[in-house]
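Allow me, if you will, to draw on your knowledge of protein folds for a short while. I have a record of one protein: its chain in single-letter code and its fold written as discrete structure tokens. The full record is reproduced below for your convenience:
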Amino acid sequence: MLFGEYHFRGVLEDDAVLPPFKGSTFRGVFGRALKEVTCALRHQECPACLLRNQCVYTRVFEYPPDLLPRGAPTPPHPFVIEPPLTPRTHFFRGETFEFTLLLFGFANQCLPYFVYAFEQMGRIGIGRRLEGRRARFRLLSVSTSEGESIYHFRDRALEGDRTAPLTWEALAAGRPVEKLTLELLTPLRLKFQNRLQAELPFHVLLRAALRRLSTLSQYFGQGEPPLDYKGLIARAQEVAVAESSLSWTDWQRYSHRQDRAMLLGGLTGRVTYVGALTEFVPFLRFVEKVHLGKATTFGLGKIALSNPSHKGLDHEGR
């Protein structure tokens, strides 16, 4: 699967009031901005539009169900927005801020549309209205995960392709792993047996990781990987929780499309697992990069293993 990680930097042109978790704000305004910059028939509803199967907005944001094979599930979104994680809510004109955009598969080819949409998003404004308008910002630059600049507001030109293949096989542990700690940096929403989970047994975590790997690979990679899913899950049930400080965190977002407030919540905190973990490390490393669980486009489900190196963990998971 082609994977792109792009770091955006902007500067506020107005004072801003943003929620403690900013993912819903960024994702909501981004959807509106992307539709404005890509829609060729502005007064046409998406489901009835003849261009919907070629439209960047519908392919990225609202994939038409009638274009899917009969019985096929709706594909996952090919992007994740990682908002600023600061809990600050008040910001001032002239302050800079950063956020990250992750793109999967074909969406990397649409990067110019995404950059243009974020420029438009700055003109629309974000956050609570102050004196009748939302806070505007100017997009300053875009860089790769290696820090290489690929866009600057002065010349407004994108330079080159900065994607790289992402496969779980390349993320294998270099040594046997018997202990690891997982930190949930943003709320993690997982369902098991059709219920949201307030705890995180290892087999539930692995089921979600395999599901994320499978769906992303199926739609944006080389197809579903030939894994022994039943065997992996059976062995995952032997892994124990050694320590946990997980708790449930609720946050509220307002849906403009549904015209109502929505309460979303998820697990945050840290959990340590012990057992025969070596074979599971590649799957956890994969979802460490692409997020996990529900509502990932908002930035939910951002996780971090105890050692960010992809060269493997030692026996103590350090």
User: Anything to note?
Assistant: The longest strand covers residues 260-274. Residues 202-220 form the longest helix (19 residues). Residues 308-318 have pLDDT under 50 and may be disordered.
